[in-house]
Amino acid sequence: MDKNKFISENFNISPKTLSLVEEAEKSIRGQFEHIENICEINQLRVMKAFADNRVSDAHFTATTGYGYDDIGRDTLDRVYADVMGAEDALVRHNFISGTHTISTALFAVLRPGDTLVSITGKPYDTLEEVIGIQGEAGNGSLKDFGVKYEEIELKEDGTPDLDTIRSVLTASKVKVVTIQRSKGYGWRPTYSAKEIGELISFVKEISPDTICIVDNCYGEFVETEEPTAYGADLIAGSLIKNPGGGLAPTGGYIAGKQKYIELCAYRLTSVGIGREAGASLGFNRQMYQGLFMAPHIVSQALKSAVLCSAVFEKLGFEVDPKPDEIRHDIIQSIKFGSPEKVIAFCEGIQKGAPVDSFVTPEPWDMPGYSEQVIMAAGAFVQGASIELSADAPIKPPYIAYMQGGLTYESAKLGIMVAAEKMGGIK
């Protein structure tokens, strides 16, 4: 059967778009080889952690009630710690999102009168109410509890402003600095684990006791090491993103120094109980299997992002990263310049999804965001960013952010449909 004929007849993709995508694929073969090499190393890292911790069928057994002596839950913590190059880790289905894990880490280590500084500019939108930048007083933000906050803007080239960071750290005692690995709803570089490590070393030279917390969302398994291997005190992320491998139905993780992980466990449950209780309710198997699959699934998402970059650059749009750039997260940004094109792109990605392909996404007032947001997300797990999705705040310069793809082939279809829709926008 002729592949292009099948695609054309069943998905209404024009010969022009098919030809464009084929040209794009040929131009990125070198990037695919690089991604496959990283995938193999990461898969071996995961395999070693499973073997070293003697993972067996017994670890998949469900517990209920208090969940005391849940060996699957406790062993999964150790597996994650090994994979992340950390002293300890806290992996739980109780974490509902990346925002929840980061919030837990912040509330765990900060106390009234402490100072929190974001050294990579504005944090992700959903953290603004956690910190107290947005939202009503009295909602329980860090600000309500007397935590002071300062934000250091990035330089014009998207790199951290080291001079200002030095000035702030020297002028007053800073308890915690946060580093956001990925760009969020911004147009700036995503930082590599090594670059984050260099930034952490810079902070520690000036203020050795400052705790460095990294928002690691979208970055896991994109490289062969995580920020904890370069000195991060804590990193946090969501299991419905990279490390869940498309199989974890919910959950999140925090990894890092053991003394801080203990505080995070106290914050998640209660002081004095911490990680000792909490039934796994049968989620363990999916969380183990998702971690096992994660290196491969992340490689599929990365290939999809590179293809998207190549296709839309050929269509004349500004893209970040560019097709030949080494990647440090799974996100692909495309600057469309108009709301109509952003909406058309998201509609195309939705039509290429395996779930709810018949749905037309529309901008809406999403909780935690200051502007309307449009989201294309035809996923098996609701909101799973490791599955093919795209979202965009409806504001200038009208940038869409695509991420995920459980298989390269399915994501490629979504990209083709989105590219085809661009042809109908004047």
Write the layout of secondary structure elements.
Layout: H1 3-11, H2 15-27, H3 29-52, H4 71-84, E1 88-92, H5 98-109, E2 115-118, H6 128-131, E3 148-151, H7 162-171, E4 176-180, H8 193-206, E5 211-215, E6 234-238, E7 252-256, H9 258-268, H10 284-314, E8 318-320, E9 332-335, H11 339-351, E10 373-377, E11 389-393, E12 399-403, H12 408-422
Parallel strand pairs: 2-3, 2-4, 4-5, 5-6
Antiparallel strand pairs: 1-7, 6-7, 8-9, 9-12, 10-11, 11-12
Helix pairs in contact: 2-10, 3-4, 3-10, 5-9, 10-12, 11-12
Could you walk me through the main structural features you see in this protein, from its secondary elements to its overall organization?
- α2 crosses α10 and α5 crosses α9.
- The strands form 2 sheets. Strands 1-7-6-5-4-2-3 form a 7-stranded mixed beta sheet, with helices on both faces. The protein has a 5-stranded antiparallel beta sheet with strand order 8-9-12-11-10, covered by helices on one side.
- It is globular.
- By secondary structure, it is of the alpha/beta class.
- The protein contains 12 helices and 12 strands.
- The two termini are 35 Å apart.
